[in-house]
Amino acid sequence: MAKILEKRPLTPVTKLYKVDAPLIAKKAKPGQFVIVRVHHGGERIPLTIADYDREEGTLTIVVQEVGTTTQALGQLEVGDEILDLVGPLGMPLEIPVAGHIVGIGGGFGAAALLCLMRELRARGDKTTIMIGAREKELLILIDELTEVCDNLEICTDDGSAGYKGFVTGRLQELIDGDGPGRPDSVVAIGPMPMMRAVSETTAKAGIATLVSLDPLMIDGTGMCGGCRVTVNNEVKFACVDGPFFDAHQVDFEEAVRRNKMYVKQEQESKDRTECRKLAVGQD
Amino acid sequence: MQKACRGTRLMPVKRVNKTPMPERDAVLRSHDFKEVNEGYGIAHAQFEAERCLRCQDPICIDGCPVRVPIPDFIHKVASGDMRGAAEVLRASNPLPAVCGRVCPQEVQCEEQCSVGIRFKPVAIGYLERFVADWEMAQPAAEIKSNLHRSEKVAIIGSGPAGLVCAGELARLGHPVTIFEALHAPGGVLRYGIPEFRLPKDVLDWEIEQLKRLGVEIQCNVIIGKTITMDELMGEMGFSAVFVGTGAGLPSFMGIPGENLNGVYSANEFLTRVNLMHANDFPNADTPVMVGKRIAVIGAGNTAMDTVRVALRVGAEHGLIVYRRSDKEMTARIEEHEHAIQEGVEFHWLTNPVEVLGDEDGWVTGLKCIKMELGEPDDSGRARPVPIEGSEFVIPVDNVVLSIGNRPNPLLLQTTKGLESNKWGCLVVRDKSSETSLQHVFAGGDAVTGAATVILAAGAGKDAAAEIHKDLCKEM
Fold it and tell me: Is A159's Cβ below 8 Å from some Cβ in B?
């Protein structure tokens, strides 16, 4: 059980939680994740650790309400407890001191850059954070992210803030020498199509790139093998070998396909939850 | 070789056969998760208990990894002293209701049974289960926790090895804390063995008895990640550690198509159902994908469990595909027979070479090659050799790989000085449970690689005795 100490809506469907988890906070490193289960009969889902405070003994996680479990989590309020919270899981991010590192966060993936870029900056790298969203209202944590890097680049599809277009468009401009300049290393966290596009962009420019894969998982400790991904023609378990992999070696097509395995069931589960809510409402 | 009969009285002629285990109808049961074996009634049990010869030198005990005093408890059943029988059992085995259900008695105690020399052996397993079930149905007997010693022991993993080790240590007076990575305790007993072979309320009851002895269980803690071994032995003040982390890392074959949608490891398939209750989807949130035809690769107990679970969650055809023949199969005879009764189809001497899929990446079939048996291999079993040009395709919607598990490396990655062999199994000093680290002991699948529940339980029990000795020495 982990008590929720703080809850902050970031967008209509994205919420930030600070939870009491001293053991995990003590061990957490940038890029690792936790597995949560919200209620009995609930799923176990992985969530990236956005930030941690060892002294306070707290973890920060950001949740986008897209499915049954994330929606149930979104209902929890300060003082409520998350039924199961286990971690830290996965290997921490390892980037050799590289000079200029660009961290790219798509959608709520931006949250994961908080502790990650702070640490890279602290050890002496020049850091740029690039976040992208459909429109201005969907951008998250701008103030917090500004604090942990040297440059913040904002991209929106509709141009309502910052660069108009996808992050890959702005990334190409940086590669060509604009703004903070060509990255020596890139790390991308976000939706699979975004990470794939970033990977294609940096591959052409020959820039080392890591992506954080988020396949379906159950245990998160290497036991089920549900999270297997193909990297450089080798099968890896994202939970124990990852979540970071060399973007240019990842079989994205397979990863995207495997993540869609339960689309039908996910919808069925959400419908079921809606029905339950309606039934409760009628009582 | 003929074994000498060491019986003390003559076998009554009418008692040549084992009292059969009442089973639920195969057609009915293959659609639900209720237990297949219904258990003896008191009349069955006492009738069967009468068959025991009460040998003076009971060699059945030698066949039992936890050395249950078998004739003692059986004699108590025969004389109607069920409470006494339960006490005898519990004093030697902290998990009788589990072992009575899942032990392969036919290759252990019952294989040694003197009655078995001329007739069918005494149904020791069925009787063990009867006594445990009897105990479960009674108002809880008073169990006094006896934690009088100061040295705390940490147990890593709550599978059979860890639970038994914890129970034994608590009985010897040591405060024990079990750390479990998942959200519910039991290890493979929870996520691996399905409800129809080991009901989860039976497991819960056994764990409850351990808690009453004073055993503490902390779920959602991964030693090596959440807490390190050094912290356990250092600031957390544990005097000894038992590693019972099992063999939870699934093996894959490395054939093309293994990452297609609809291919599972047996671990994932069983965990979705047993731990996450996918059979109750969408009431439970975790789904499992099962089409009409499912092929399970392998022929151990896990493979049988998997294919029988598949039938219960909607598959119309469950297939076992195995590269050797039924003679080399490692599943228990009972599990094999139950699978046959439930309509499982067996493809012996058939080796998968590729999983086939459609353009969207979903499984459509399993390409196999026919095998024949050649010379014996290292395991002493006939080596299967492919028959050239015999490839064929079995149309299936799902493939589950049940070809074995290796120990999980998480603990090793973060524990300096803990030695393992090339298969990732922990190295212990010959015939003991001592690892390369002082005061750190290990047993069960983490040491042996994937084996049985009872061997793990036996290892847990042996380790508890060694830990106790080690701690007494320190005093």
Answer: no
Residues 252-291 of B with CB under 8 A from A: 252, 254, 258-259, 261-262, 264-265, 267-268, 271-272, 275-277, 280-287, 289
pLDDT tens per residue, range A145-194: 999 999 999 999 999 988 999 999 999 999 999 989 999 999 999 999 99
Query: What's the pLDDT band for A94 if we cut at 50, 70, 90?
Result: confident
Helix (H) or strand (E) holding A153: strand A151-156
- What's the pLDDT at A281? 60
Interface test mutation site (partner A, options B223, B225, B255, B399, max chain A beta carbons within 10 A): B225
Closest CA–CA distance from residue A220 to any residue of chain B (Å): 9
Test mutation, B183, B261, B270, B397, chain A, max A CBs within 10 A: B183
**CA distance linking residue B70 with residue B119, whole number of Å:** 18
Alpha carbon separation from B372 to B326, B351, B376 (Å, rounded): 12, 10, 12
Q: CA-to-CA distance for B303 and B365, rounded, in angstroms?
A: 18
pLDDT at B4: 42
Across the interface, whether the CB atoms of A86 and B276 are under 8 A apart is answered no
The amino acid at B287: P
**Looking at residue B150, what is its pLDDT?**
87
Picking from A58, A33, A60, A57, the residue whose alpha carbon sits closest to that of residue A45 is A33
- Chain A 14-53, CB below 8 Å of chain B: which residues? 23-24, 27, 37, 41-44
Orientation angle between helical segments A252-259 and A192-205, nearest 10 degrees: 180
- Of B257, B95, B276, the C-alpha closest to B194 is B276
Weakly modelled stretches of chain B, pLDDT under 50? 1-11, 13
Give the gap in angstroms from C-alpha A150 to the nearest C-alpha of chain B: 32
- A1-36: pLDDT as tens digits: 899 999 999 988 899 999 999 999 999 999 999 999
CB atoms B226 and A257 under 8 Å: no
Q: How far is B345 from chain A (nearest CA, A)?
A: 25
Packing angle of the helix pair B124-137, B82-92 (nearest 10 deg) = 110
What is the ipTM, given to two decimal places? 0.92
The tokens describing B332, both together, are: 């228990």
List, as one string, the DSSP characters of B214-230: T-EEE-S--BTTTB-HH
pLDDT tens, B376-400?
Answer: 888 788 889 999 999 999 999 999 9
Contact A222 B183 (CB under 8 A): no
Q: What is the C-alpha end-to-end distance of chain B, expressed in Å?
A: 49
Proportion of chain A in helix, strand, coil states, percent, rounded to 5 = 35, 30, 35
Q: Does A83 touch chain B (CB under 8 A)?
A: yes
Average pLDDT of the segment spanning A46-66:
93
Neighbours of B57 (CB within 10 A): 10
Q: pTM of the full predicted structure?
A: 0.92
Name residue A34's beta-bridge partners: A47
Tell me if chain B has a CB within 8 Å of the CB of A92: no
pLDDT score of B450: 85
Question: Cβ of A88 and B225 within 8 Å?
Answer: yes
